[in-house]
Design a protein that fits this description.
38% of the residues lie in helices and 28% in strands. It is built from two helices and five strands. Strands 1-5-4-3-2 form a five-stranded mixed beta sheet.
Length: 98
């Protein structure tokens, strides 16, 4: 996209822990699948770094939701001055309103 500028991303500590635990859990069953999930998450983050508005707005907040294609996982993120901050990572079927 013309004029698109890639922004850096960072993880909230709890979101990063949840993501790494998930990868460990998947890898304990199938290392290849864990690598695929990690690659798909990395690709999704690259897309969002370039176009932060592509996620779906979460009502009543500055947070956006992005489902990672072909993984069953999603994350919530928000734009910051420095870039993108991933504030929550979850399995899509576990996204229960709190």
């Amino acid at each position: 996209m013309p004029g698109s500028k890639k922004r850096l991303h960072e993880w909230a500590p709890s979101a990063r822990r949840a993501y790494l635990r998930t990868l460990d859990h998947i890898a304990s069953d199938d290392v290849h699948t864990a690598k695929l999930v990690a690659e798909r998450v990395a690709h999704s983050l690259e897309l969002i770094e370039t176009n932060p508005g592509m996620g779906t707005p979460v009502q009543g907040s500055r947070v956006r939701r992005y489902p990672v294609p072909r993984t069953g996982h999603a994350f919530n993120y928000r734009e910051t001055v420095e870039g993108i901050k991933i504030v929550r990572r979850y399995r899509q079927r576990q996204n229960v309103k709190r």
